[in-house]
Write a structure and sequence with these properties.
The chain has about 475 residues and is mainly alpha-helical. It is built from 20 helices and 6 strands. The strands form 3 sheets. It has a two-stranded antiparallel sheet with strand order 1-2. Strands 3-4 form a two-stranded parallel ribbon. Strands 5-6 form a two-stranded antiparallel ribbon.
């Protein structure tokens, strides 16, 4: 048995016995990193192109390699490729398939590079494409959310602190609060994309290469802004994966908060909204049930994505420079975080615009809990009463209302005046829910015209991204 027969032909020259079969399976990543095949081939085409300009390959060798790589890609996409565990990963599988097709010329492709810079390049290329897809879906969600906010600019509902009725707001204003979270998330996603868009290709194993390579050319061919500046850092850096998972964790945290409110609002106890049947499921035993499974699952998947962030932080926390096999464990958490984020965004982007508000229920809920109490205090202050005194007067008014089962707006002028003779008939202008909402007529306020203006500005901000 020859040396090449006993060991992995891509790196087995130094070894005297074959790798244990279990160790092959344990150390292989082809089971999950095969999804990088397109980006691996993209990087290899750029590398071959550069090697020809550097005089390492002839034009004929370059063309043979590029044509062979395109054929390998076609075979993968048609399902003809057989992935090999002994070849360990997507890089060696692609290179082996190429060599099978074009012969010894295929073995020249790896000149001036290592699997270390190759995988770092592949992941960046792959994640960059995924970020672009996620940005598109996040924008779709924001557009749908803002559109619903415009539609619901006049729909009054209670605003809450401590989950207790606080002050009246509008449903549109509440939806725009959600959009503010998503807008910050979009910014973080773009920051992540900017930082990852540097090419590690050419860093080789850790110290660069003695061949006359042109890293600026490969960076340009692959759409990177520039090459990375330090070969040691180039092959060992996974900050971009951690940063993406940090973005994902915060995005899902925001979506989980939204989900919690959607779940509450669909309950019989709130009865604020209706989710279309296509986003819900029923019960196997209780025929009346309509369960908000989509928001519940999004809420649940938040822990999964946050776990991936912790996994990557833990993975990197003790690694010396440069590359270590530990880094093979970066892919599955990152891949699953991407898949989960895309699924959750798609579900929300489809569901949010289809929400139907139950305006009467929202309005009735806003009437409970003395939500205009602060408006009464502000009214007294404008009449010259010190705020702390106004606070006490309103507190006594609320206590009276609780005892008499009356909202402030339902009390007569005489009842209100027993707490302060400063109160006059114009008080009822501020005690109505409509008056309370309309009075907050400033940037960021709840007044319907401000909500519409904010929605318009948010749409303009989104359109400016292009």
């Amino acid at each position: 048995m020859s040396q090449d027969d006993k060991t992995n032909q891509q790196w087995g020259g130094r070894f005297n016995e074959p790798t244990d079969a279990f160790v092959q399976r344990f150390t292989a990543s082809i089971q999950f990193d095969q999804r990088l095949y397109r980006h691996d081939i993209q990087g290899s085409i750029a590398h071959a192109t550069m090697l020809e300009t550097a005089g390492v390959l002839t034009a004929e060798e370059r063309d043979a390699i590029i044509d062979g790589l395109k054929e390998v890609q076609a075979n993968i996409e048609s399902g003809k490729q057989e992935w090999s565990i002994p070849l360990e990963d997507v890089h060696m599988n692609v290179e082996s398939a190429l060599t099978d097709k074009i012969g010894i010329t295929g073995k020249k492709l790896h000149t001036g590079r290592s699997r270390n810079d190759q995988v770092a390049t592949d992941i960046r290329l792959w994640l960059r494409d995924e970020i672009d897809a996620i940005a598109t879906e996040l924008t779709r969600l924001q557009n749908g959310m803002i559109g619903l906010a415009e539609k619901e600019a006049d729909t009054i509902m209670p605003g809450f602190t401590h989950l207790q009725t606080a002050q009246p707001v509008t449903f549109g204003h509440h939806l725009l609060a959600w959009n503010e979270m998503l807008e910050r998330d979009f910014g973080r996603l773009m920051d992540c994309r900017k930082r990852l868009n540097q090419s590690p290709l050419g860093a080789a194993a850790l110290a660069g290469t003695t061949y006359p390579i042109d890293r600026n050319l490969t960076a340009s061919l692959l759409g990177f802004d520039q090459p990375t500046r330090n070969s040691l850092d180039s092959v060992s850096d996974r900050d971009f994966a951690i940063e993406f998972c940090a973005f994902s964790s915060l995005l899902l945290t925001h979506m989980s908060r939204m989900s919690e409110e959607l779940i509450l609002w669909t309950s019989a106890q709130f009865n604020f909204i209706n989710l279309p049947d296509r986003f819900c499921t029923g019960s196997s035993i209780m025929p009346q049930k309509k369960n908000p499974d989509v928001p519940e699952l999004v809420r649940g998947k938040t822990g999964r994505v946050t776990g991936h962030l912790i996994s990557l932080l833990t993975l990197m926390k003790s690694q010396p420079l440069a590359y270590n096999k530990d880094n093979q464990e970066d892919k599955e958490p990152l891949f699953d975080a991407v898949d989960t984020v895309k699924d959750c965004l798609r579900a929300f982007a489809d569901m949010i615009p289809a929400i139907e508000s139950k305006k009467d229920s929202m309005l009735e809920a806003a009437k409970r809990g003395f939500s205009t109490a602060t408006d009464l205090a502000d009214y007294l202050v404008r009449k010259g009463v010190a705020f702390r005194d106004a606070h006490e007067i309103v507190g006594k008014s609320v206590a009276y209302g609780i005892a008499e089962n009356k909202d402030l707006s339902e009390m007569s002028l005489e009842e209100l005046q027993q707490f302060s003779d400063t109160i006059t008939a114009d008080v009822f202008d501020v005690l109505t829910l409509e008056g309370s909402v309309a009075a907050r007529n400033h940037i960021g306020g709840t007044a319907p015209n401000q909500v519409r203006a904010a929605a318009k500005a948010a749409l303009q901000l989104i359109s400016s991204r292009n």
